[in-house]
From TrEMBL:
Name of the protein this chain belongs to: Beta-lactamase-related domain-containing protein
SUPFAM superfamilies: beta-lactamase/transpeptidase-like
InterPro entries the UniProt entry points to: AmpC-like, Beta-lactam-related, Beta-lactam/transpept-like
Highest taxon of source: Bacteria
Transmembrane segments: none
Pfam families found in the cross-reference section: Beta-lactamase
Species this protein is from: Roseivirga misakiensis
Length: 384
């Protein structure tokens, strides 16, 4: 009888402990949901997406808020624009070609594209374009101008043209010519850091030259289809495998809705991907779990160059170090990429957590890192 009583006590204690853990987990998930809701209550946010998951799925949230202008609800099957997260796709594509022996990171760009690069790297009357390497392009150390946000010699930059010429469909070579005609290089290759979409257009052209297929088809063949990324495609260039509920969640540049603009074609290899939280998390998982590229190539993609306080750039990957951004924050890192629309796709190696989503407004470009920091702080605090 005494033995049976002890067994009952043990079972009861086990069940109470399991129930306590379940309640704690439920409370943690509710807190994460509430934090997301708080960030989406701002008037500028018309729709927002958030997915977070641990490798063991002990934490899993996939949620969305908002409506289209016509009143229809956005859903988890509504693809959203990822903006510069597309750079991670392009850098991964280049890395796949390196792993296949078709490219090397130190290849000279001119050896692949010839005169296409002429005039893009002129400093004090000297053209350094023949010194440009794929490494320079991937790491934003080429010194070339950014046609999107730099101040042009004449006229306006692409960020302004995107709004004023919404019906213009930009082809890749047009973007290179636009840079060559209206912008000056910042420094000689390898002598600094300057974020530039021009570099990633050149990388896209290299991929097409080497593989002899369009960039969007390379993405489909080697990234999207192998990872079953059903809602992912290249905006204005291809369609996803799975028919989405709506073509694309509405994007806002401040108060202006731009999701149907043909001028978004100016992103191309630098950021034209539309996707979902699930697809993006699967993508970055595949990168870091060795299911896409080799371990040695992943290490090369993480050759960090200082970008700004607490921020570093590799090959299509950005790293945030939280306690460098704010000394009161924990020593956690986020590795992935952000987009100008408030989009994000990151991996936190210390917590083995993957986070993707967007706030779909260019006015929220900076707030996403504060949101992610608060999410990770909450999780790390509760796990102690």
């Amino acid at each position: 009888m005494k033995k049976i009583f002890l067994i009952i006590l043990l079972i009861t204690g086990f069940l109470l402990n399991a129930l306590s853990q379940e309640n704690n987990q439920k409370h943690r998930l509710e807190q994460l949901h509430q934090l997301f809701k708080t960030y989406t209550e701002e008037e500028v946010i018309r729709n927002a997406f958030f997915r977070i998951e641990t490798a063991d799925q002990s934490i899993l949230i996939d949620t969305v808020v908002g409506k289209f202008a016509d009143g229809e609800e956005v859903t988890l099957n509504t693809p959203y624009y990822t903006a510069s997260i597309g750079k991670t796709f392009t850098a991964t594509a280049i890395t796949l070609l390196v792993d296949q022996g078709k490219l090397a990171f130190e290849d000279r760009v001119a050896d692949h594209l010839g005169k296409v690069v002429t005039g893009l790297s002129v400093i004090d009357g000297v053209d350094y374009s023949k010194e440009l390497t794929i490494h320079h392009l991937l790491s934003h150390t080429s010194g070339m101008a950014d046609y999107f946000e730099d101040t042009p010699i004449s006229g306006v930059n692409m960020m302004q043209k995107l709004i004023t010429e919404p019906d213009h469909f930009w082809k890749p070579m047009e973007l290179i010519d636009f840079t060559r005609q209206h912008f000056k290089a910042r420094f000689q290759p390898g002598l600094g850091y300057h974020y530039s979409d021009t570099e990633y257009v050149l990388l896209g052209l290299i991929i097409e030259k080497v593989t002899k297929i369009p960039l969007h088809q390379f993405f489909e063949k080697y990234i999207i289809n192998p990872l079953s990324m059903e809602l992912t495609s290249m905006n204005l260039w291809s369609e996803p495998v799975k028919r989405p509920d709506f073509p694309l969640a509405e994007i806002y540049a401040g108060p202006i809705e731009i999701s149907r603009y043909q001028s978004l074609s100016a992103d191309w290899a630098g950021g034209a991907i539309r996707s979902s939280g699930r697809d993006l998390n699967d993508f970055i998982k595949a990168i870091f779990q060795g299911n896409l590229i080799s371990e040695s190539s992943l290490q090369k993609m993480q050759q960090w160059v200082p970008e700004s306080k607490g921020t570093y750039y590799g090959y299509g990957l950005r790293k945030w170090v939280l306690n460098e951004l704010n000394p009161s924050w924990p020593a956690l890192t986020l590795i992935g990429h952000s987009g100008s629309t408030g989009a994000y796709m990151y991996f936190c190696p210390e917590l083995d957590i993957y986070l993707s989503g967007t706030f779909n407004n260019t006015d929220y470009m900076q707030q996403h890192i504060m949101f992610l920091a608060e999410i990770l702080i909450g999780i790390s605090t509760n796990s102690k």
